[in-house]
Amino acid sequence: MGCSNSVRLPAGNLEGLVIDRLRAFLDDPTASLDALADELHSGLGRTELIKRSLQLALDLQAKAPTVVKTLLMGLLCRVNIKPDRIEISLSRHRLAAMLAGQPIDQRPQAPEAKQHAHDVVTLMVPARLKRVGREMRILV
Questions:
Q1: 7 contacts 81 by C-beta, under 8 angstroms
Q2: For range 96-119, the mean pLDDT
Q3: Rounded to 5 degrees, what are φ and ψ at 136?
Q4: In whole angstroms, what is the distance from residue 18 CA to residue 86 CA?
Q5: Per-residue pLDDT reduced to its tens digit, 72-86
Q6: DSSP string, 3-52
């Protein structure tokens, strides 16, 4: 048996899930502080980090899709679809730099370049794959 299953979602649903999960993460001061605790030495205080995190969450909702895509590329956002969840991986260092107002290199990272495990923040969305004919669909 082949493993050539395609995941098919109505346009925008996967992107919407990623953006909604990222917004929920940024809206939660405890989660933001926990994830970026090692990066707080960069001169960004806790109060300022929370303010900028909340502002970024609002920006994700209000910005045009092309701006959001650029922002996600700047965070080295990677989405992996697993049988029981969707994993969203972000660069901790780049997120801290973005919240600190520092410029971020927007060039795509080479595929062979790996992120260090300590630099990755992984957000998850519970989901499951369901076979529908010859396709696989994601149920969230």
A1: yes
A2: 65
A3: -115, 135
A4: 9
A5: 888 888 889 888 889
A6: ----B---TTHHHHHHHHHHHHHHH-HHHHHHHTGGGGGGS--HHHHHHH
